[in-house]
């Protein structure tokens, strides 16, 4: 961390539309605020299970609100999230473990590609409404993000390795240790005290606490 810069960790999962919104806003502010932004790919399923949380859409009134909320936020932040009622089932029916392990493998190999790679997963799933669970879909996302086929192939092989599985598990456990019960979970290390902010609508508060 640079002189007087605040380390801000963003724990996210590409299955979460709110994670995409929070990710884009923090990507924009990382050059304006005095922060070092660190991307921390985590597994939402593991966080939910450990904390007894349930998908928001399980509550019909909340699902109804979420449809409106995400549309408003997408427009406000100019992020091309598209959401409709069938997305709730689509999320429940999608295995995102391979995608999150692939992103984790990237984090372990060439972290500078994390931003474009993660973004392409969200675009594919939430903008183009396509599958991200199969190896060929994952390779298509990697290609869109500008990765060479050699690197993509290497990362795809890494996703079944104990090192990558453990790293994703550890990152997920770290998020839980900070108090996360869902994503995005943003942790600001300010004045020696890690502060957790949940969701993509607490970023003004984050700014104010770190003096921005």
UniProtKB/TrEMBL annotation:
<dbReference type="InterPro" id="IPR001853">
    <property type="entry name" value="DSBA-like_thioredoxin_dom"/>
</dbReference>
<dbReference type="GO" id="GO:0005739">
    <property type="term" value="C:mitochondrion"/>
</dbReference>
<dbReference type="GO" id="GO:0006749">
    <property type="term" value="P:glutathione metabolic process"/>
</dbReference>
<dbReference type="InterPro" id="IPR014440">
    <property type="entry name" value="HCCAis_GSTk"/>
</dbReference>
<dbReference type="GO" id="GO:0004602">
    <property type="term" value="F:glutathione peroxidase activity"/>
</dbReference>
<dbReference type="InterPro" id="IPR051924">
    <property type="entry name" value="GST_Kappa/NadH"/>
</dbReference>
<dbReference type="Pfam" id="PF01323">
    <property type="entry name" value="DSBA"/>
</dbReference>
<protein>
    <recommendedName>
        <fullName>Glutathione S-transferase kappa 1</fullName>
        <ecNumber>2.5.1.18</ecNumber>
    </recommendedName>
</protein>
<dbReference type="GO" id="GO:0005777">
    <property type="term" value="C:peroxisome"/>
</dbReference>
<dbReference type="InterPro" id="IPR044088">
    <property type="entry name" value="GSTK"/>
</dbReference>
<feature type="domain" description="DSBA-like thioredoxin">
    <location>
        <begin position="8"/>
        <end position="208"/>
    </location>
</feature>
<dbReference type="InterPro" id="IPR036249">
    <property type="entry name" value="Thioredoxin-like_sf"/>
</dbReference>
<dbReference type="GO" id="GO:0004364">
    <property type="term" value="F:glutathione transferase activity"/>
</dbReference>
<keyword id="KW-0808">Transferase</keyword>
<comment type="similarity">
    <text>Belongs to the GST superfamily. Kappa family.</text>
</comment>
<feature type="active site" description="Nucleophile">
    <location>
        <position position="16"/>
    </location>
</feature>
